[in-house]
# Entry
Amino acid sequence: MMQVTSFEAEAAMAAPGKNQDHRLYLEDLDVGRRFTSATHAIDEAQIKGFATQFDPQPFHLDDAAAKATLFGGLAASGWHTAAITMRLLVESGLPLSGGIVGAGGEINWPKPTRPGDILQVVSEVEEVVPSRSRPDRGMVRVRSETRNQRGEVVQVLLAKLIVPRRAATSPQPHGELAAG
Amino acid sequence: MMQVTSFEAEAAMAAPGKNQDHRLYLEDLDVGRRFTSATHAIDEAQIKGFATQFDPQPFHLDDAAAKATLFGGLAASGWHTAAITMRLLVESGLPLSGGIVGAGGEINWPKPTRPGDILQVVSEVEEVVPSRSRPDRGMVRVRSETRNQRGEVVQVLLAKLIVPRRAATSPQPHGELAAG
# Structure
């Protein structure tokens, strides 16, 4: 788990490269490079908890009701699968300098996530595009497949991420202002 | 708020049209039809709570650290904006028969969601395609813009949704089995 105090995080953000040499810059990301996250086990309580808060529909809340629907049984909200995928990417699946900052993307859920599933995210760099207007960053397109314990793909995310360049001129040290 | 007991939900799912005459079928959805949701006020505690659980990065967790980043201050995780959007759609923004069942879509976050924002979702039907293989349903493409209190768009979601047809032959009453 990435545990950072706010000061460390601030320093890392303000001065790329400091305290996070293991994290990757735009220059480090070749097309085809792959990453595999840790795993997350999802259970009925998590599924119902997320659904109660964000997606209160019978197929995400009640196993008996879900049986009568398209899902044929309790299934996690797709947004819950997306949120778990994000946590896996942030903590272990995609060690990017500057963190994982998405501008958007495409998302698909080929199969439902079920109680008892053990999720893992496999990501592959598909495109690397340095910014023409901002020499300190670029855009990376990453395909992240979220798979269950049987290797079935429950989510495909094609994300456009903003990634800093190693060679960038350091921006103004806003971190020091913010720390004051 | 849509409050359904599991029995009512089950009945509604198993026997489309029953107990949910106000909800819309494929036939009711013309291209250009628009829907406006209720509103949701997001605050710092919600932003940090979601981020702690699903997107633990400094710009979603700590205001001072966030100032030193691309975001320039605390911002909600895009997945949090997506989850709130889903709740608004489920409860008030898109009254579909059978609920809101997404196969996938495109998502973009043109601006960050900030503490104090009041979010509302405006949706428009962009395409309606009856299924060729399944006479009981079809696909609807809906564009949902999530806007803040200044009318700025913080998220655009182009979702492909599965919607039942009114004229469908009722499927096997799995609901009764499930209730037994």
Remarks:
- DSSP finds six helices and five strands in chain B.
